[in-house]
């Protein structure tokens, strides 16, 4: 036998440290996590045995056993599932299968997790919760189908290392043996274990059993008792999604949600229905109330768990949900699918397409209902998931209007933090207003002080504030809402002024020409502005160009973006522009005029949130002008 010592990966140590030193409440969840892992292992064995009967090793008596041993102070959780090879044990129990390890570590150190350590449940680190109640954890495991002597014993007492040694195990599956801490001895008691299983694992499909010894009076000698040991099942094993709605309590719904999602917060909404007709299926779906930390990662798993005739086929069936509803968790069971479906088959399976359509509709209907009935709850939900839902406008052409009805935005007329729907915006539009105005930017404060809103403020026109990075693409994709076109406040030509724009364009024509000649290819044109009131100039993107925020986002992703030349807009009513016109009339060649044009262009860059072309030259020129100005007084 070879026993090898191995160090844990840093993130495992961190988790263990948190588990042991910060988690004081709900320690009993370790049992839920271990039972859940055992149940997953049986699911896998059962599924793989559909195509390879030898994995059954002669029996289909699936169960999860709890074996308390008071003398040894140990609790064993045993399953007869798929088991692990040596390599699998190293991978599964020594590392954290996670792509965003760095972000994950950051999160672990965050206040939020420190204050609510239960949150670590959502990281998929259930196994390590065993160390909350045990000084030492041993895992004796053998892969289904392997020889008895090809088992492995993994052991650790959370000191930064674990050992691995070869072992023998006559039956397939896994024993997780916990050497309980002094203050965790209650987990050896039948009533305690029964209570925890009932509370957290009642719906587990496989029996969670324990040998229970009862003493009864001896029928032959009333003075004595006889004891009898029987195997009792602690859980009712009802697949909650197949039960009648009326039979299920909110607590049961919530507990099941926590089981499948590893979220500790109750869900925002439950959707439970049965579809009958040509395609029959049951669906139990949840809208979470908190965004999982990994939802924006590439390897985030989308879709409900799929069951076919009570056999779990896959834990995330991505073909059943559009990506913009990836926050939805749940279970779908259909008897119209074959047991041996693969992901490839599911991709273009007719039944799956029908189910996907139905789920999508049901979820969007539920969101609409939630918005109508309880705006506060919907607002809280939107805060967490609105950004994801919005992707649907881009990806689900057919339903983009339904999704548009679900969007919420702040506007220049709402209090900070308060949001309105597009329908509310349109209702509030005056009869002269033809378009839906919106402005994109990094945050509300930046947007509100932007020169692009000057004319809107003056005319008291409401402008929607959009601060998500891809809002501009989403809105361009939507194009129209209730027959009203969208118009960006920072793009394209606007004419909300006093109706004298054309006149002014002529009046200032020569000066504008000179400015364009001076700026050359830096701008596509120089024109009189229909949006400025207080500022002298601003830069404006073309109607169909990307807004500066999108340009920056693509550049940050290392992508080349056609920047599209912008137009410099000039405010003819600004004192400086009037003076420049005077200067131009006196001397077209004036070097000062040229200097001003350059400075104005740099100023426009600054207003857009960019740096001037040459900050040093800009600062020098500005100081020079200030010195001259000071000299005049
Ligand atoms: N009883 C078991 N039988 C077989 N494999 C197991 C068992 N318990 C744990 N494992 C393996 O260890 C891995 C890690 O378990 P852990 O509970 O930490 O996270 P997880 O179950 O993968 O994540 P999640 O809790 O999100 O489902 C599992 O994915 C599985 O591969």
From TrEMBL:
UniProt KW Thylakoid keyword: no
Stored Pfam families: HATPase_c_3, HSP90
A single cellular component GO annotation: cytoplasm
Histidine kinase/HSP90-like ATPase domain ranges (all copies): 26-184
GO molecular-function terms, A-Z: ATP binding; ATP hydrolysis activity; ATP-dependent protein folding chaperone; unfolded protein binding
Annotated region (C), positions in chain: 553-633
Keywords in alphabetical order: ATP-binding, Chaperone, Cytoplasm, Nucleotide-binding, Stress response
Protein location: Cytoplasm
Similarity comment: Belongs to the heat shock protein 90 family.
Purpose of the protein: Molecular chaperone. Has ATPase activity.
Subunit-structure text: Homodimer.
Name of the featured protein: Chaperone protein HtpG
Protein species of origin: Trichloromonas acetexigens
Source lineage: Bacteria, Pseudomonadati, Thermodesulfobacteriota, Desulfuromonadia, Desulfuromonadales
Annotated gene: htpG
